[in-house]
Amino acid sequence: MKRQDFYFDLPEELIAQAPTAERRGSRLLMMQADGSLQDYRFPQLLDIVRENDLLVFNDTKVIPARLFGQKESGGKVELLIERVLDESTLLTHIRSSRSPKPGTRLIIEDAFEVEVLGRQDALFIVKVVGGNASALDLVERYGHMPLPPYIERSEDQEEDKQRYQTVYSQKPGAVAAPTAGLHFDEEMLSAIQAKGAKIGFVTLHVGAGTFKPVQVDDISEHVMHSEYLEVDDELVKQVAETRKAGGRVIAVGTTSVRCLESAAQFSEDGSLQPYQGETDIFITPGYQFKVVDVLLTNFHLPESTLIMLVSALAGYERTMAAYRYAVEQNYRFFSYGDAMLVFPPQDIKQEE
């Protein structure tokens, strides 16, 4: 398929620039197995979730990965951390008038220094110089929340520290939020469990590559960015129990999908097995899902790998029709936007 097949016209005013007053205050568009669309409010998800279902959440925690500083020579720099490599070393994007060379010292937030060690493709490896604090501690103390590029604010706000973070986040490492989870508050999580549904967790540290556009026309030629994930024994057991009880595996967000399907892909027999490591799985129409039954997700960028993933589960024509409907009905798009619950057709065909 072609990248342009996934284009849709999106008015700028539908791109959400701030969260709703309450986490659960968004709308929810449900796509049924027959392709029909129903408009709901997000709390009505509780009417759709059934006893014995398993909702799988990504428990990664967004780190305040944007840092500002200057070179020793005085030139301004901006760092966007891609990954914390170890106690003192970071893999990062660096924006400056000239790319810093190895050995260059950068003064960050007038508080600490890092030294540029070298390059890893388009990224830079930097090491914290001096002091006893770890790189992650310094980032947590002095960093800014890394809001997506389509949120057009010059600076993050205090509210973003809470709202661009899920209430169940546990493991620091992401530089972008698993946004489908932003709709849930503690009360709603408790209500889901009270219905007899289960909650499980995977971990995928979302990288800045999630915003990387597909630049090739033939999507089969796109090289997916790599991200770190963990699927543990407990989650594998929960999925098996859900299958035995006749429940559905509902992935909360595309990152949960990538975790579950990667862990199955890396096993010898295609069954879900514990996995810890990297994934660059690229899910497009024609992919046969091994674990995920239902997807809860936000609305994604035109021509993005994420809308391609949704199309793989829902079917291409159904997905594009749903997105056109969402635009017509003024749904809010992207990270702080509304949600979509996707049931795949029972007889979904592979689409080339």
Describe, in plain words, how this protein is organized in 3D.
With 352 residues, the chain is an alpha/beta fold. The protein has helices at 45-48, 135-142, 158-163, 186-194, 233-245, 254-265, 305-314, 316-328, and strands at residues 27-31, 37-41, 54-58, 60-62, 66-71, 76-84, 89-96, 105-108, 112-120, 123-129, 171-174, 198-204, 227-231, 249-252, 275-279, 294-298, 339-342. It has a nine-stranded mixed sheet. A six-stranded antiparallel β-barrel has the order 5-6-7-10-9-8. The longest helix is centred in the C-terminal third of the chain and has 13 residues, at 233-245.
List descriptors.
single chain; globular; 352 residues; alpha/beta
Radius of gyration, in Å, reads 21 Å
What structural class results from the helix and strand content? alpha/beta
Q: What is the strand content? A: 25-35%
Number of strands: 17
The average pLDDT score comes to 93
The CA-CA distance between the termini, in Å, is 6 Å
Largest sheet: 9 strands, mixed
Shape: globular
Strand ordering within the main sheet? 2-1-17-16-14-3-12-13-15
Secondary structure layout plus pairing:
Elements: E1 27-31, E2 37-41, H1 45-48, E3 54-58, E4 60-62, E5 66-71, E6 76-84, E7 89-96, E8 105-108, E9 112-120, E10 123-129, H2 135-142, H3 158-163, E11 171-174, H4 186-194, E12 198-204, E13 227-231, H5 233-245, E14 249-252, H6 254-265, E15 275-279, E16 294-298, H7 305-314, H8 316-328, E17 339-342
Parallel strand pairs: 1-17, 3-12, 3-14, 4-11, 14-16
Antiparallel strand pairs: 1-2, 5-6, 5-8, 6-7, 7-10, 8-9, 9-10, 12-13, 13-15, 16-17
Helix pairs in contact: 7-8
